[in-house]
Write a structure and sequence with these properties.
46% of the residues lie in helices and 19% in strands. The chain is an alpha/beta fold. Helix 5 links the parallel strand 3 and strand 4. It has a 5-stranded mixed β-sheet. The chain starts with a helix and ends with a helix. Helix 3 runs parallel beside helix 5. The chain contains 7 helices and 5 strands; from the N terminus they run H-E-E-H-H-H-E-H-E-H-E-H. The longest helix is centred in the first third of the chain and has 17 residues.
Length: 147
């Protein structure tokens, strides 16, 4: 079940790259149906806060109530960063499923500011699943960052 949605995330992440952005994407799922999608738009929007999860949650807040958000699952191509983890917590989304882990991304990029969302999000409030199909997510990053 998770692989189907993760593949959509990875495809959207590749689309983000084609749009001149970083390879990140997110989906909001309700009852096994994708209800919203978003990509990273940091470069195209010239705004370093426009991560895929932030873009997704912004759209979700405009469309759904807090009660509705609390029953949704957020799928993301890569483990959420600290900023996105905070937004996920405050949104009330109950489950996060990620593809590429923060530790794998750190190995690829050398970025030392990455941490696992498991260290940030309280497990009693948010179920965290991942990594899911990490090899595919890592490949997307390897092709992009080419360090």
């Amino acid at each position: 079940m998770h692989s189907k949605f993760m593949q959509q995330c990875f495809n959207l992440a590749k689309e983000a790259v084609n749009n001149g952005n970083h390879p990140f994407a997110a989906l909001l799922v309700d009852n096994d149906k994708v209800i919203l999608t978003a990509q990273n738009t940091v470069n195209s929007d010239r705004d370093f806060t426009r991560h895929a999860e932030m873009n997704l949650l912004h759209k979700a807040a405009q469309k759904y109530s807090a009660a509705q958000l609390s029953s949704f699952t957020l799928y993301t191509s890569t483990e959420p960063c600290m900023m996105c983890s905070g937004a996920i917590y405050w949104s009330g989304v109950c489950r996060v499923v990620f593809g590429c882990s923060a530790s794998a991304l750190q190995e690829i990029t050398g970025d030392m500011f990455l941490t696992s969302c498991r260290d940030l999000l309280p497990e009693e409030a948010i179920e965290i699943v991942g990594p899911v199909d990490e090899s595919i997510g890592k490949e997307t990053h390897l092709n992009f960052w080419k360090i």
